[in-house]
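Side project, low priority. Logging it here so it doesn't get lost.
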Amino acid sequence: MAVNVETLDKLERKMTLTLPVDTIRGEVDARLRKLARTVRMDGFRPGKVPMSVVQQRYGYSVQYEVMNDKVGQAFYEAANEAQLRVAGQPTITEKDGAPEGQLAFDAVFEVFPEVKIADLSTAEIEKASADVSDEAIDRTIDILRKQRRSFAQRAQGSAADDGDRVTVDFAGKIDGEPFDGGKADDFQFVVGEGQMLKEFEDAVRGMKVGESKTFPLAFPADYPGQDVAGKSADFMVTLKNLEAGHLPEVNEAFAKSLGVKDATVEALRADIRKNLEREVKFR
């Protein structure tokens, strides 16, 4: 992996990364093969779905995930090697003109300023409070509930909304021609959670089971897929299934599912408070 770092401003930097295309393709193939061993599809025995079918259905989302993972990993590894203290999230865009067999990316980000510490040998330092509010505990519990939610069929005629899990068939074309990863059947995602591009989620939101619609979608210039980045596509999507998410109740069963020793809500809150206090102390 080649890396170049440029100073744009006092705290702003630009890092140029290049990654081998084979690295991306290899990981995509590996994830698709792993998926093929467990995916279930009508007409095929478990683990016997042809790779071409798995590629058609899941290639788009797997490639998107791999690009995000690999580029993000490469950025933070390079920043660590260059001893850069990155502040916040980088803005990563694909760069044209990469050597053959390579993908190039520009990452613009800020770094923490260098602070010179004065002599504190005689200073009086007040220890930071590690008090954790009940609201912070409630927010943590909400996150844990969301991670353990279940889904159930919504009533006939219901419209897709944020938090619903949808199953869709979709097919996209650019300049009237299909493109790799632009078609999938029985594809699932939760509306409003950012798994798909905003225009895609906006199109599905409000649809009912059995409905189909076409809509335009503009891939952003920094989209991980180089072949479609900055281009406009036309998609057709059909909503096949609609499920509402249900959060588990906060009770003894919920506490037990989280491995709380006493399996009570009080013990759960105490464990969360202890963990949050530990995080505060080590910030």
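Brief comment: The chain has a mean pLDDT of 87.
Revisit when time allows.
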